[in-house]
Amino acid sequence: MEIDVLRSPVNFLQHMLGALPHEDALRDYESWWEAEGRAISDATDRAGTPWLRMFDRAGRRVDEILFAPEYWRALRQGYKAGVVWRAFEDQSLETCALLDYITCYYDPGLTCPYVISLATAVALDQHGDPALKDRFLPMLLRRDDTVWQGATWMTEIKGGSDLGANVETIARPAGDRWLLSGDKYFASNAGADLAVVAARPDDAPHNVRGLALFLLPKRREDGGLNYTIRRLKDKIATRSVPTGEVELRDSEAWLLGSREHGVHQILEVLNLSRATNSLGSAAIAQRALAESADFARGRIAFGKPIFEHPLMAKQFREHFETLRHAFALGWESIRRLDEVWRQKPPYSDRYHLFRLIAHLAKYWTSDVAPQIARWAMEVHGALGVLGEFPVERWFREAMVLTIWEGTCHRQILDGMEVMERKGAHHLLFEALGDWASPDEIAHIRRRVESHLALPQSEREAGAEEMFRDLAMFTARAAVQSLSLSEAPI
Amino acid sequence: MEIDVLRSPVNFLQHMLGALPHEDALRDYESWWEAEGRAISDATDRAGTPWLRMFDRAGRRVDEILFAPEYWRALRQGYKAGVVWRAFEDQSLETCALLDYITCYYDPGLTCPYVISLATAVALDQHGDPALKDRFLPMLLRRDDTVWQGATWMTEIKGGSDLGANVETIARPAGDRWLLSGDKYFASNAGADLAVVAARPDDAPHNVRGLALFLLPKRREDGGLNYTIRRLKDKIATRSVPTGEVELRDSEAWLLGSREHGVHQILEVLNLSRATNSLGSAAIAQRALAESADFARGRIAFGKPIFEHPLMAKQFREHFETLRHAFALGWESIRRLDEVWRQKPPYSDRYHLFRLIAHLAKYWTSDVAPQIARWAMEVHGALGVLGEFPVERWFREAMVLTIWEGTCHRQILDGMEVMERKGAHHLLFEALGDWASPDEIAHIRRRVESHLALPQSEREAGAEEMFRDLAMFTARAAVQSLSLSEAPI
Amino acid sequence: MEIDVLRSPVNFLQHMLGALPHEDALRDYESWWEAEGRAISDATDRAGTPWLRMFDRAGRRVDEILFAPEYWRALRQGYKAGVVWRAFEDQSLETCALLDYITCYYDPGLTCPYVISLATAVALDQHGDPALKDRFLPMLLRRDDTVWQGATWMTEIKGGSDLGANVETIARPAGDRWLLSGDKYFASNAGADLAVVAARPDDAPHNVRGLALFLLPKRREDGGLNYTIRRLKDKIATRSVPTGEVELRDSEAWLLGSREHGVHQILEVLNLSRATNSLGSAAIAQRALAESADFARGRIAFGKPIFEHPLMAKQFREHFETLRHAFALGWESIRRLDEVWRQKPPYSDRYHLFRLIAHLAKYWTSDVAPQIARWAMEVHGALGVLGEFPVERWFREAMVLTIWEGTCHRQILDGMEVMERKGAHHLLFEALGDWASPDEIAHIRRRVESHLALPQSEREAGAEEMFRDLAMFTARAAVQSLSLSEAPI
Amino acid sequence: MEIDVLRSPVNFLQHMLGALPHEDALRDYESWWEAEGRAISDATDRAGTPWLRMFDRAGRRVDEILFAPEYWRALRQGYKAGVVWRAFEDQSLETCALLDYITCYYDPGLTCPYVISLATAVALDQHGDPALKDRFLPMLLRRDDTVWQGATWMTEIKGGSDLGANVETIARPAGDRWLLSGDKYFASNAGADLAVVAARPDDAPHNVRGLALFLLPKRREDGGLNYTIRRLKDKIATRSVPTGEVELRDSEAWLLGSREHGVHQILEVLNLSRATNSLGSAAIAQRALAESADFARGRIAFGKPIFEHPLMAKQFREHFETLRHAFALGWESIRRLDEVWRQKPPYSDRYHLFRLIAHLAKYWTSDVAPQIARWAMEVHGALGVLGEFPVERWFREAMVLTIWEGTCHRQILDGMEVMERKGAHHLLFEALGDWASPDEIAHIRRRVESHLALPQSEREAGAEEMFRDLAMFTARAAVQSLSLSEAPI
Question: Which residue of A has its CA nearest to C156?
């Protein structure tokens, strides 16, 4: 474990991937974070949840979010570096994902607006009619300070797992557009200029098939606020993305794509978040390890740095190896998404393969990142539980990534479904054939198949062990894939 | 897993231990917490680190800690219930430990002053000369609001693991007492009326043999402050115990016991904290499970409470089983301590056996409690990362218990030492013989012995796996012991 | 200026009024504040605006205000002492006003719920039909912890001065009750069990004549919340009363009295707040003086306490004299209100006399209290601008009393109106005839009459000087009245 | 009152002074504040007292003040604009004072480091020996981000008025320098690179003649911290200057000037702060008026903006006139200081004249600024007591300026002394002869002389009325002086 690899996200990316696309841009972005962003991020976290100024002095509703000015500067830095526009320029998500990895190493919360802005742009590009695209897409692709931000608001107060039952926002047709009414309970990037929103047309059935996807701008045609923020949530982390309760009251919106495929389009939107989240968990793990290594090299006990004590040295090596596996698995999900992000229903097998890998990656990376972050607190001893030092932050950040985009529980069940319904595990074994031995594959195949043959309730109850084994198998293969195809530093 | 057992610490104690000593007192204490204490504890946690008023308006140093008044009411509740005096009345630590368990279920921070006040009383009783005991012990044993609080201050800024190297507080003799000068960096229960303090007589060697133990009151003979608090630490949890940086400047103190046995006496003081800490981790795990079960029974997804979803139901059952093992292992350490807490050097084998069990218990309980608490956050989904709801608190609390009294790393290394030097593992296998099968014992014995035969560096590097296995073996035996000897509900 | 008079609100009341009604109850109440309440009040102020928990974990709207538990204990203390029920038992407001004075000395914020609960009870008693009174009045008059709280919600976002134009809450008839919809922007005691609310029936004109008064309970007939709290306001003081933005959405309510007299009834409700507010300003001034005197007696400069420096000693004497005048003027408004609080339209001359005195008292006391409180900060020197010491709080508290119930500007203009329309100044000179010399009266009469003869715009522009002179004249007469009729200590 | 004059500090300066020196630089500085600084200042105030990180993770004392990064950017903006270096380049304080006025309009706290850095540079330049000046003065005069900050630390815990009695910091000679030990209780700009400090050589008498002035750098010769910060004070305002309790423990320092003139040199240091403080109070009054005018023009009641209501319109006009007087008086003190800031004992009459004017200006401006700021809160109605809106801030800021550099009480007594001892009032009447009528001068001369003829205790007790009259007379003459000599806009 090289300390220089640990301390720099770009170095680590190079260590894992070899040559990087747009390396200069990545290095520039990292340099900005080291010179300015780090301290801004610390201050944002310390400041806690920002105030929401709902009304101005004249009594007009304004819903202004009172971050420190430098927050906005930091936020725009990523947009300018290309967290959205590069996907359209490169016709590939990879560089955006690398920029998100760097962002997450320094400030996990900021990754969220970047990823959901990209998801908004993609959804609009895929499903918006030409006039809508002409009107709004350029705003999201700007490369300067005037860039618009996007958001993806699905979840309501009864929870995000069972959208079919829990989305109560109603859409009523009104000329060329729709009027939406309802409350979005965990609306990330509240204040966004443009949101894609799940709602139920008023004549649609109250189940998952009744959902549709809409595009909703911040301002009404007449310039007024098109949604209001009831309040910002006091989150324990990711304080650099304002998460709010958003109230839609006859809010103007446009249907995206077709009502028939509403639920598929909603899931497409989540694909990007889920895959990037896996990389983000790895980035947090890297950061927690880097902070710990710095500390442990300076802390002396029994005559030498605790970094050199055999037990701790072994733990560092093992956690670094876990980090490599987590990254490789997350990256595998990005690569697979990059092949299918332009697909529409009916989806190909590669789309289902991506979905399984994304569930495996989200599950496993968000299980290991908090463990590493928690261990980093232990390395710091009593300093690990003080607000004064940054290390406890990484656990808080890791936990948010574990929970949003679906908890481990959710990933397991959804991953099971794509195996049961689409046979995605077969696609997986085929796809990974080059990077695992035939014996390994035969072994894990038997493991999975015999599990899937169990009765329903038993199958679900015991799913975690099987799913973890499958995730670790996939992670090992992914590491192997990288070391075969690339020349690491 | 009965929900009524989960929701009540006394019910759980009865489930594990059968008949309880002073059950009425325990029930009364729990009732107070349900009626009043819970809400006070929530408010204390929300309020964050209290202010320290260093000077009064007239410019006199006062070091007043500005908790809400109700905090002090809650604090005294436990003292009156017997967290200190019952140990002396019963000549046993067990009821105190049970009261601490209840306290920890409701407010882990408060357990700290209780335990270290008891440790102060025990140290004074064991090692104080008669005049000193007559003067101060009654203050600590009062059963009303005038009771004094104790504290045990060892750690300095360079860390608590390597006391021999890191204690820089110097003691100079001055007539019948000593004058201490130095800084205690993590002084729990700052503001205590009486503290036992590790310091180095000015003519002593700069190693672990040079340490001695002192009794230091809050007020000088002339009524002035005998120590000052430089500041209170902003901890992420256990906010109900003020942890400060304490400055000793020619502070008056009395030597406890003999200089020759200073380091042993210091370790004796830690025994109680360590054993109680293990129970406390179990209490936090119980609380986190109770909160999750309440939530999961009310949260509906896909048509039924998520508590009844097969995968989650299985996780609840497994975590409850882990909780039972953690408690049993913690309780084993309390029972063993209860046999030896009056010993002085040279210690018996039973003392060394206790030490091994305490290390195993501290290690394993403080590894599993944060895992369960983190999982409880996941069960709550997005609510799990909001400051608004109590569940994220239990992870924060669990982490403090993981770290103070020595991290996992420390427990492993110290546990290894007592096996290597005192052969404590042999005593353990003997002691647990009735509650484990001969095969199990033979297996674990081989595992331990072959590990101890490894070269030093390899032995230390690989210690964790072996130590975890040994801890789990001991926990299983402890559960078995309880179910054989007691009639659970 | 006796320090013992300054330090005790009851002593001061006795100094000003001689024998006090229910003196034992007043002394008991003060004793509770000294023993427990003071520290609770300090903690409440330090804690800042409490959290509003809008939803419970199951996603149900609950709007729970998360004060520390001891806050609720302090709150109920006053209700039990009689801040509401004594007015009905005594058929007089005087004892309630004395209890409010004591409350305000210790915690100005708490006075608010007490006064508006009383105002709610009075409005219901005066204007509710018998069934409504039977149903709700007993709840407000309870003498134990189950007592209900009232509230008086008039102001909306465009401001409270011009209710005729700014009340946009609409009331629609619905069977035996009404459904109210609108937003109350500065709703004091948000969370109250019962509120009197200004609204406009949907067929009423959009002016001050179109307003009516309604009684609105916290819970709907079906048990649900009848209003929601959008948020609590971050006030700089009076943090012990939660002030919120309240949303009425088809909220169930009953009409009080007649629509024809709606605006008069609304003003009646404010009478009590306004008169008590004047006493409250005096209480804050007393507290600020008491704190300063304590400090100045302990602070030494140039060899003696600064309290004894000639310039400061003179300032203390003058401010104490101002306090006496402020109290006497405030008390005069209470006494006058006590004569007319049961009147209904058409009102007698004594009612209009009360109104003028109340405007004079609100104006002048809320002008002098912040001045004294600000001076108290200066006395403390640099300690006066630290959050650590309580003195700066009294300025913050004083400013809230200056502003709510109508700023000085508002009092002047409304006071002018009652002179212009009702000739209330003639009633005043007559009423104060015994306590001022004929010359004084002749002088002030000429002053007022010549001012009232000015052209409209000039009359309004120059109103403050005249109004101040009239207020000070009235205050002097009121002091004279007390010293003639009572035997001060 | 022109709204454009009110809303821009440079416009107001031009309105008062006509042509401005370095006008372009002043306009640039104002533009920066409008574009960036305003929002930074709001965020700094909202953030409250910053954290002090006393130790780094390795346990080294670091005393790092955790402001948001943008704070440091804002801070350096003024240094670069010339708040220190221009005084030396121009050989005049005027442009620095104008920059300070602009700073104070936007962020009163920041003015403090600027003024005391200049005072440090002046003290060093006046009294440092050549080697000391060569070493340190260039650091303070840098025009880029590497500029050093100064500080002036006199006050100790017993208060700042009576330095002779209350300075307990002791200086012991040590070779070419001194070692200082003691505590400075209100140390503004804690963290400064260089401080001038009052201390008492160990052989000096315990009175005001025993004081001497020292120069004390942040770092010892060996690079270690030369002073430590015990804590930062929680002030209610001026949060952009960190005020701390500073501990000197054998801190290395150099004597400035001669011990014989120590107390005079200390007072010289205060001259600049006092004069600038008067301008600062005016700047805060301007800001409070500007905020109120903006609000009052947008707030409608009874059919028109409240700004146009006759009573309020009159109040605006009067307060603006008061602002003009306050500024003119403050500016008079700056102009007089500019004539004498290079003097050393024995001082000329013009020096004593400056001192009287400075006391009059500090007294009166800091009496009227909080009054105007408080009135601005009233104009805002209920918004005036919300933390959400900026107006209440200006009262808080004004109060700090009232108190630091000596309260009103102190100014009166010190102003009296310079009249009694130096006959400074005679110099004043002579100096203002051109700008007041002979009758006015004769009148005020009689007023002052007859007062000074009173017995001591009576003279002091009644001093405020006379002093206020003299201040207002001087302010009127100063306004007259400006309108005669300059062509206002």
Answer: A59
